[in-house]
Amino acid sequence: MSQTVKRPDTETAVPAPAKPRKPRIGDVLRALRQPKIAIMLGLGFSSGLPFFLTANTLGYWMRDEGLTLKAIGFLSWVGLAYSFKFLWSPLIDRLDAPWLGKRLGRRRGWILIAQIVISCGLLAMALLGPKHGLLALGMAALAVAFASATQDIVVDAWRIEAADTNEELGLLSSAYQLGYRIAVIISDAMILFAASHLGWPTSYVLMALLMTLGIAATLKATEPAGADKVLHEKSAEAPLWTGRGLFDAVVGPFIAFFKTWGWVGLLMLVFISLYRLPEFVMGPMATPFYHDLGISKDMVGTIRTTVGLAASFLGIAFGGLLVARFGYMRALILGGLLQGVGIASFAILATYGGDPRLFGAVMMLDNFGVSAAGVALVTYMSSLTSLGYTATQYALLSSAYAIVGKFLKGFSGAVVDGLQAQGHTLMESYAIFFAGAGAIGLPAILLCLWLAAVSGRNPRTPAPSAA
Description:
Elements: E1 3-5, E2 14-16, H1 25-30, H2 35-53, H3 56-64, H4 69-75, H5 89-94, H6 101-104, H7 106-128, H8 134-162, H9 166-198, H10 200-220, H11 225-237, H12 243-250, H13 252-261, H14 264-275, H15 277-293, H16 297-326, H17 328-344, H18 346-352, H19 356-382, H20 390-408, H21 412-421, H22 426-439, H23 442-457
Antiparallel strand pairs: 1-2
Helix pairs in contact: 2-8, 2-9, 2-10, 3-4, 3-15, 4-21, 7-8, 7-10, 8-20, 9-10, 9-16, 9-19, 14-20, 14-23, 15-20, 15-22, 16-17, 16-19, 17-19, 17-22, 17-23, 18-22, 21-22
């Protein structure tokens, strides 16, 4: 006898086999050859490429120019643009992109505009550099971060709306994470080869050119037909620039979210905001740490593009497998533990020095844990959205997961400097900092256990998207 399953954001029940075969790691990797999954890979790459170019990698460039850890930490606040994207996501949900929206569709039009702005912003950063003043460089970085956050809003919406089933949503999420992690390896590791031999400005020009891969994926993609119909029906019922239209666009997604999940929705937001704290807090100090440890750019790039890249692939596949076999909560708990251990292991590197074998082992732990946790969280957040409000609700969730961490990471340099002021050596200060960064993920794991227990006692069927 067959069963039926529902995606949380749809009203249509779809048939499912009574005994579906549990996917293996090979199933996740083979699915990347499907056209839709391949496009998602390219869009994930486009989303991941700018992220570190305004954060960790920019910090390495600044440290090379002799800037203080405190300045590097504070400049990382340009990444707060990612945390407030829910403020303009209702407009992205309801308005076509200028010039391109009617030709490419609402989702693809906004993605392409964002990609063009990112490319131009990276070129501006290459021309300006730290030597032309932190204000000018910071403004260019802020433009890249704002456009990148906008791209993330729409790519996330496309990913969720393009999925026909929960299984396909999981595969698309894994493809997104894979493309994202490949881009991170390039912008956080391979760029170091170019910076070492060609200089930082030329390296940033090359990154701007790599954005064409994302542009190609956008042009190849198609608009999700079902979501496009819902969006235009909503626009017809209540034009955006009326009182009802503005209320439905801005407030409606949040009402729909809490109507679906009740008070547990608030618990979800708190959990999501704490889950990735370890990665965010340690981020600005990672590349200055390599610099201060005396590891060459070539060595960092080699380790991260070999051991680090392989560990990222395995972590993404493992995260997708955990979600498919054991569900969101167990995957989140195990992913959170792996993430914390990987980040805390940097303290070992600070204590025992930059031996290449030890450095490789730390990179393996870090990349594997962070990647597995990323897949679990992205898939979990994707399951909580409603069709028609996808961009805004997912922006709310992704902003919740980023805002606390991106605010706190601005003080990371001040923490390391403060530990030095207390009499610790620089490496001792780094070791204490990284151990603490790994430990601050524990409250999120405890909250996840509570959330799983609460959800089990109070089962709630997600409501259909609000009219």
